[in-house]
Every structure is written in C-alpha cells, then in structure tokens.
Write a structure and sequence with these properties.
The complex is a heterodimer of chains A (125) and B (657). Chain A is 42% helix and 39% strand. Chain A is an alpha+beta fold and 125 residues long. The longest helix of chain A is centred in the N-terminal third of the chain and has 36 residues. Chain B has a domain of 230 residues: Rossmann fold. In chain B, strand 19 and strand 20 form a beta hairpin. Classes of the chains: A alpha+beta (125), B alpha+beta (657). At the A-B interface, helix 1, helix 2, helix 3, helix 4 and strand 2 of A face helix 1 of B.
C-alpha cells in the first residue's frame, strides 16, 4: 500500500510538472504560428484579455512581408506570480522584395497565463 | 482501492497531458495580474506636462489657414507652421526633446539609402549652390539623416511600428513597439511619418486607425509629427493621401506635400522601369530628400527659439587629393593602361589628371596632372586626345607635346571623341549654339563637319567606317532627355536610326554593335546588332543592369559588368562580370567585384581582361582598384597608390599596344 501511494505521488508530481512545462511553451508556439498564419480568431483564443487587443495589429504588421517561423521552439523556464515564464529559440524569417530580415525570438521572455484550464499568451516579461 | 488509485492516476495523467492547443474562445477572459501595456519611455506623455509653462505665441507669429483636406493637391510642398506644431515643439524642448534630432517612421521608401541619408555625407553628396542655405539645418540635425533608427525598415507598415512583436529585441525593451523604442532612444523634436507601401487588404480605414495611434504616440512624446503625401495612387482614388490630409488638418500638424513635388517629373516621379505602381524613380528620391530637408529647415527655423539652438558656422569640407607623384612625367606608355580620374567637389566634377598603370608590377605613374582628362587613343596607340574643360588637345607619343585643336570641345560626354582609323577621328564640337560632329585628320586638321538635325549629339562612337551618335533634347537649363541613336557610314550621306530607346552603355566592334535594353522583368537583356543596326539577337542576361560593355579587340567576345541591385533600396548588392563568346553564344562568368564607376579594359591581345573602379575603404577614403578577371599573366594590382577623401570616378581606361 505504501509503495502504491508513493508511486501515485511520484507520478502525479511528474505529470504535473509535465503539464506546467509543456502547455505554456506550446501556447507561445501556437500563438506565433497563428499570427503568421493571419488567423486572428485562433490567435485571440490563445491570448489573454490584454494581449487580445493587439492580435489584429500584430497580424497586420506582417502583411507587407512573407514571414515564417524558423526552428522555433519554447520551454517554460519559471513563474512570476500567476504567470508562467517561457523562453524560446528560433526566429521569424521575413522576406521583403527578395531580401530576408530576421527577428530573433530568443531574446525575450514570454508570459503565459492559465485561465480556466487554458494557457494564454500574455505578452512579454 | 487499487482500482480507485489507478483511476485517479489516469485522470491526473489525462488532465496534465491534454493538448495545450485549446483554441476555443474563452467567453470572458479575466484580466491578467501583470501588465503588458507598452513600455513607458523615459519621457512621460503630455498628460504630465502640467508643470511646463504653456508656450507663449509671439504676436508676430501667424498660422495661415490651410485649404480643406479635399483640396490637398493644392497644399504647398513645404508646410506652413501650425499652432499645434508650435506648442508641441516648444513644450518638447522644455521637457527634454532633443532639438538636434529628428526621427523617421516608415517603410522602405524611408531607409537612409533612399531618404535623407546623403545629407550626413556632404563630402560625397555636396549641396547644390542654391541649396546651401540648408547647411545650417543639416549641421544642426547631423547624425539623424544617415540612420534608419528603430521605426524604419523595408516591409514595415503603419501596424508594424506599433507592434511590440516587430521591435528589434537587441535595441528595444520587451513589450516596446518599434515606434516607442525609437522615440525613447532618439528623443526627437521632429518625426517624419510616411507609409507608402500598399498591400492586399490595406484599407483607408485601417491606415487611418494605425496612423492615429502613431500620431498620438509621437505627440505624447513631445515631437512634432510631419505627415507626407505619397507619389503613387495605387489605390486608384488618392484616398490614402486624402486621409493623410484629413489627419493633418484634424491634429493641426504639418503635412509635407511630396505628391505635389513630383508632378513635374517624368511619370510623376514613378519608376517606370519597375512599373509596380509603388516605387518612385531615382530622380524622385532626390526630390523627396530635398523637399523633406526643406520642410525640416522651414519648420525648425520658424519654431525654434534662437537661444535654444546655436549652430556654429560649419566649414566647407576641404577636398585634397593625395597622389603619389614621381618627379618626372613619363610618356613611355607602351603596354600600359592609360586612364584618367575625376573627383566630385562642390557638386562639380573635378578632373584629376591622366595616369598610366604598368600591368606587370601594378605601378601607377602620373602622365599629366592637373585638370586634364583622357578622351580617346588611336588604335595604334600613337595619338592621344586629351581635354581640359572646353579645350581639346592632340598628343603624339613620339613628340610628347600637346597641340590644341579646339577651344569649343563638348566637355559633358563620356565619349565625346572616337577614332575611325589611325588617321582620322571625330569629336563633338560646340559651334553656333549647336553641337556638331567634326572630323579631324591625325594632324588636327578639320576635314568634315556633320550637322545633326535631330537634336544635340551627346555621345559619339566609331566602328569600321561607321560613326554612331546619341541624340538628346537639351532645352536650356533643363536636363537632357534621350531621343535616340543614329549611325552613318562615313562615305554615305544619310544616317539611319537604331532601335534603341534608352541612354545605356553602347559599344562597337569592327563589325557589330552591342547595347542593353530594358526587358519586361525590369532587368537588362543585351542587343547584338550588325553595323547597319539590324538586330541579330536579343541575349537574355542574368538579372541585373549593365554598367559597362567592352568588345574584345578581335570582336569575337564582349565583356560586361552587371549591377545587381536591391529592388527597393537601389543599393548595389553585388557586381557580376561576364564574357559572351560570339562563336557559340556562351556566357562565361568571372569573379564578382565591387567598386564605384567600373570600367572593363581588354589587353591588346585579348588574353587579359581588367576590371577597374574605385572602392570606398572608409567614409572619407577612396582608392583606385583594379582586378584581372582573366588572370593568364598573374597580374597583381593589390598596391595601387591612388587614394582620395572623395569618390574618384574613372572616366576612360585604355590598354595601349
């Protein structure tokens, strides 16, 4: 019995860690993909209330370039209050009139908020 | 019990590892506890201005009323001072805006290469005499011209500069938009705001919505926004310019009417080569920079308090050419490359003399210093034509003496003389308020004169027995416009016009002609034509624009140097070099080169091909460079000893037998 309880406790902790580490990171990845896809509905659904107000502007900001994510992946690196903090690697490659520009996504730390079971992209830390 | 535990475990597992991609909209999202509002910059927005005295408007200051926005096409190019601009400027200076800094906010038409950058490089781009009154403003805002800052990039639009996602993370704080970042770093007193680029889905409403945010952000940071009309009308009804004028009127801020400034230019300033309805011509770039500078000059001089900005009198940059000079001139130039150089000083070309380059050791020796240029060399190399202003001289190698053969030489052409044979040449000579083709014998005696009825001959070329000339229409005090190219055998009375619509490089071999034409894709193809002008072939070239052409001595090959330019900035990305072999139409590519005003020079045997130009090695240091493209003889030109603080332009280069 004690063995079983220990096992349950261990697995619960491990799975809980898995949840908090993966979901915020994936939320950031999905948010950026939705922005570059020009999918305002999806990006808004992945945003906290404050960020939601910026979604259309961020989509519009890419309208004059061809943009794609390059080797973009994120991981949770900690928390700040009720915000999960996420760090990413990779960049956005933007092609404008035959010339490439790059936006390094590894410099910023991103905030993700859990609301109602959803992890929502909430700007920059 | 174990089952319950397993069930609990399963629930936990499923709950924790459910997909994070849950995109069902949350009906009402709670407000996050931490802010993601745009980063506050060091200078507080204008709501905090209460402690600053309201600027007193001098009684002599008047603010003329503008025509309604619907009549924006009649608004002046340089805007009048507005009351709001006065208030913003004076408040800004009191609150710490930099009276010596301005910013640019915009798209690719505002990058420093195309917009204003040249005013931080006056040694390279001297002001025209009539614009020297702008020097005080240039000096005051030195450093602001040749920078893009954080709010100008190719591909930016009005939404981009507001989006924190698009800010340079190396320079800007997290959550800071490119605009806020630029305003924080520069603290400008003026901000040019200009978004021309059109994209699918752009509407006047969205443009206006984002422009309002930009204007209000700039005003909140105590800088005077300067709006601009655009040259194009890609939307079809000028609705963007109208919206811009409405915003200028509503916010009572200056509008620089660039649209009006280009109405007198060909195609109203649009680039008809790219013909995309958006890009403006290079000529329009200059007008755009100049009228923007005039706008800044007018606003700043009328808004400033004299005590705020004291600008010291600037010194005109002194230009001094440093040339290693041997003690004695040397006329022994057999198997040497003869070339001449010009510089630019006070917006005028300044001849810098004639030199010879020894290809075996790379040594450069002056042949004739002073204000002389090399015009052409007879095929056998025994005679040189040299010029100094409107004076044309003939020099014979054996004698080493100059004899003046005309004091009315047409000095504005790259090719104003051409040798028909070793005994005869033609030159462009001004007489009786016209330019004629005047033929001379090799002892300088006039043998014939051709009057040109179609306009002003501005370039002349010669092949075997045939002479070709470009004609331009040159009304007084206006730039010339290209009319066409004509050719005529020297033993025939009538001339024939070639199929040639643009003033691009042109070269003749003994039997053929070659010249580029602009293809539908905006790049050059090469036309091969017979001596009579009949087109033999239109040869497709790699994407680029031909800068120089040179037939090999045997006429079996032609070398060309091709500029590959950025289509939005015009910046030269690389220079590619090719040779086309006539026998099989093969295209051979040689190493890329880089430099200003390149020239291709064949050796007399055709075994070697030299690329010459000048290279910028520092902002005020230029040097002559030469590269052997066909390095069959192991030539080394690494140590050419000519440098200059201003750009040097190669005018002519000939490899003598």
């Amino acid at each position: 019995m004690r063995k079983t309880l220990f096992l349950i406790l261990f697995l619960s902790l491990a799975l809980s860690a898995c949840a908090s580490a993966d979901q915020p990171a994936q939320s950031v990845e999905n948010y950026y993909q939705a922005i570059l896809d020009g999918d305002a509905e999806r990006a808004a659904a992945l945003s906290c209330a404050e960020q939601e107000a910026n979604v259309q502007m961020e989509i519009d900001s890419f309208l004059a370039v061809d943009a794609a994510l390059d080797n973009f992946s994120c991981e949770q690196i900690g928390t700040d209050g009720d915000m999960a903090l996420v760090s990413c690697t990779g960049k956005i490659v933007m092609s404008y009139d035959g010339e490439d520009q790059y936006l390094d996504l590894s410099v910023a730390t991103y905030q993700v908020l859990e609301q109602g079971g959803d992890w929502l992209f909430c700007g920059y830390h | 019990m174990r089952k319950i535990l397993l069930f609990t475990l399963s629930v936990l597992f499923l709950a924790s590892c459910q997909s994070a991609v849950q995109v069902e909209p949350t009906p009402e999202k709670e407000q996050a506890t931490s802010t993601i509002a745009p980063i506050e910059t060091e200078m507080e927005p204008s709501k905090a201005v209460d402690s600053v005295p309201v600027p007193t408007i001098p009684p002599e200051m008047v603010f003329p009323e503008r025509k309604p926005p619907e009549e924006w096409q009649e608004w002046s190019i340089t805007p009048e001072i507005t009351k709001r601009a006065f208030e913003i400027y004076r408040e800004g200076i009191a609150l710490g805006s930099d009276p010596r800094a301005f910013s640019k906010v915009g798209d690719c038409q505002n990058i420093r290469d195309a917009f204003l950058g040249k005013y931080d490089n006056l040694t390279r781009y001297p002001l025209e005499t009539e614009n020297e009154y702008l020097l005080e403003t240039i000096k005051n805002f030195a450093g602001s011209f040749d920078t893009d800052g954080q709010a100008v990039r190719g591909g930016f639009n009005a939404a981009t500069v507001l989006s924190p996602l698009r800010a340079d993370p190396e320079a800007c704080s997290p959550g800071e938009s490119p605009l806020a970042c630029e305003l924080r770093i520069t603290k400008p007193s003026f901000v040019f705001i200009s978004f021309e680029v059109w994209w699918e889905g752009r509407t006047v409403e969205s443009y206006e919505k984002y422009m309002r945010q930009i204007i209000e952000t700039v005003i909140a940071h105590h800088a005077v926004p300067i709006l601009a009309t655009k040259a194009d009308n890609i939307e079809g009804d000028h609705s963007i310019n109208l919206a811009t004028a409405r915003l200028a009127a509503e916010y009572d801020i200056p509008l620089w009417n660039f649209w009006l400034a280009v109405q007198d230019l060909p195609a109203h300033g649009m680039d008809m080569e790219r013909n995309d309805g958006f890009h403006t011509s290079y000529e329009a770039w200059d007008v755009r920079s100049l009228t923007a500078l005039q706008t800044l000059d007018y606003l700043w001089k009328n808004l400033r308090e004299e005590t705020v900005v004291a600008v010291s009198e600037s010194e005109t940059p002194e230009v001094e050419i440093e040339i290693a000079t041997p003690e004695n001139l040397n006329w022994d130039y057999a198997n040497n490359i003869l070339f001449d150089l010009r510089c630019f000083e006070s917006n005028a070309e300044c001849p810098q003399g004639i030199y010879r380059l020894n290809p075996t050791n790379g040594e450069v020796v002056p042949l004739l210093l002073g204000e002389y240029l090399l015009e052409s060399v007879s095929p056998n190399g025994d005679f040189l034509l040299l010029s100094s202003g409107s004076h044309l001289f003939l020099a014979e190698r054996e004698k080493g003496q100059l004899s003046e053969i005309s004091n009315a030489f047409y000095q504005y052409a790259k090719n104003a003389t051409a040798w028909i044979s070793d005994e005869r040449f033609v030159a462009l000579i001004e007489q009786e308020q016209a330019v004629d083709l005047v033929f001379f014998s090799s002892d300088g005696v006039i043998t014939e004169t051709w009057k040109i009825a179609e306009g002003t001959p501005t370039e002349v070329y010669a092949g075997r027995g045939g002479v070709y000339w470009d004609v331009e229409n040159c009304p007084p005090a206006l730039d010339c416009s290209f009319v066409g190219t004509w050719g005529r055998d020297t033993d025939q009375a009538s001339a024939r016009q070639l199929v040639r619509a643009e003033n691009l490089p042109f070269d003749t071999s003994e039997t053929n002609l070659a010249y580029p034409i602009l293809a539908a894709d905006g790049f050059h193809n090469l036309i091969f034509a017979s001596a009579e002008g009949e087109i033999i072939r239109e040869y497709p070239l790699p994407q680029g624009r031909v800068r120089d052409l040179a037939w090999s001595p045997d006429g079996e090959s032609i070398a060309l140097t091709l500029y590959v330019q950025s289509s939005y900035s015009g910046r030269i990305l690389k220079i590619r070099n090719f040779v086309i072999e006539m026998k099989n139409w093969g295209l051979l590519e040689y190493p890329e080169t880089f430099g200003i005003a390149p020239a291709l020079v064949w050796s007399p045997s055709g075994e070697n091909l030299l690329w010459m130009g000048t290279e910028e090695i520092a902002e005020t240091e230029f040097r002559l460079v030469a590269t052997s493209l066909r390095d069959s003889e192991g030539l080394d030109f690494a140590a050419l000893n000519i440098t200059s603080p201003v750009p040097l332009i190669l005018h002519q280069a000939v490899w003598i037998r």
